[in-house]
Amino acid sequence: MLSLHGPESALEHAAAARSGLPPDAIWIDLTDPSADEAALVEETTGLRVPSRQALSEVESSSRLRRIRNGLSLSTPMITFDRADSVLKPLGFVLTKDRIVTVRFHELRAFAEVKARLADGDGPAASSTEIFILLMEELVDSLADALEEMGADLDALSTRVFDFDTSARPGARPDDRKAPRRRDIALRRILRSIGRRGKALGKLRASLLGLQRIVPFVAAECGSFAAGDADARFETLQRDIASLDEFETRLTENVQFLLDATLGLINMEQNNTFRILTVVSVVGIPPTLIASMYGMNFKHMPELDWIYGYPYGLALIAASALVPVVYFKVKGWF
């Protein structure tokens, strides 16, 4: 899709395919462009529209390049979809007279800038002004996403540290969490942490891309930048640096929650093994006594004793009961 914007408002572009782009089109926004749309922009402006494959290159020399009459920039940008966020490439071709943006998903930042231009918010926009506005809105979107991530991690922290791996003392049997339910709850917490960590990594990749783009453009576009561009670029760099620090703290929090959850899972496993250990120890003395009196020797002291059988059963029961009482006193279960 192709949309055009002049210094103050959007431009009609329905007939662009027949007559070419308007001469006052400062911002050319391409959303998942077709080959015909890319060819039209290249023919009219003389600027090469980068393909999706070119924008996906990871080396710095491919993402930040100086072209003949401007700059070619690209960065991965998160889709900001809370359900399943992904990284998609975002590209800019910036010259003194025009800015071409190439993207493959909807971004709130672009809609906000278009609304500000339509409302006449500020002076007539130049290509550099539009670029700075886009950077400011993208940084704001990343800040909002990181704030939401921080709130999610706080709620997840409450779930982790309020999780009771055992039943409350004195609770009724129907109030006690079954091991299966506790296992499912811990699995859900672990998956939630994993999803947050995955999304946080994509936010960091987007933030890192902007962290590289802003100082590069600030250093390279001095010849055609607006009067207050330097101050706004400095503000952007400070904002990105503060977001980077905040993201680092969130990453540490994710790792802390992951370690805590794995510790809870280890406690659950230890409880299971402890029960198995008690059961095995309780079963050893009765087995030993039964095996002794099950030996086929002709002369055994209790063989002809009238109370031999009740005595054997009582001895087996007592040998099983003593370990149970011992472990109960020690608090093993």
Please give the structural blueprint.
Elements: E1 2-5, E2 10-11, H1 16-19, E3 27-31, H2 35-45, H3 52-55, H4 60-63, E4 64-67, E5 70-78, E6 87-95, E7 99-103, H5 108-118, H6 127-161, H7 179-220, H8 229-293, H9 308-330
The fourth-level CATH homologous superfamily of the largest domain is: CorA soluble domain-like
Q: In percent, how helical is the residue content?
A: 55-70%
SS field, number of helical segments: 9
Could you give the distance between the termini?
66 Å
> Which whole number gives the mean pLDDT?
81
Largest sheet: 7 strands, mixed
Strand content bin:
5-15%
What value does the Rg take, in angstroms?
Answer: 35 Å
Tally of extended strands? Answer: 7
Shape, per Cα inertia axes: rod-shaped
**Global structural class:** alpha+beta
Give, in order, the helices and strands.
EEHEHHHEEEEHHHHH
Strand order of the largest sheet: 2-1-3-7-6-5-4
CATH architecture of the largest domain: 2-Layer Sandwich
Low-confidence runs of at least 5 consecutive residues: 14-18
Reported by name, the CATH topology of the largest domain is Beta Polymerase, domain 2
Determine and state the CATH class of the largest domain. Answer: Alpha Beta
Instruction: Give the total of domains.
Output: 2
Description:
This protein has 333 residues and is an alpha+beta fold. Strands 2-1-3-7-6-5-4 form a seven-stranded mixed β-sheet, with helices on both faces. Helix 5 packs across helix 6 and helix 6 runs antiparallel to helix 7. The radius of gyration is 35 Å and the shape is rod-shaped. InterPro entries: CorA_cytoplasmic_dom, CorA_TM1_TM2, MgTranspt_CorA/ZnTranspt_ZntB. GO terms for molecular function: cobalt ion binding; cobalt ion transmembrane transporter activity; magnesium ion binding; magnesium ion transmembrane transporter activity.
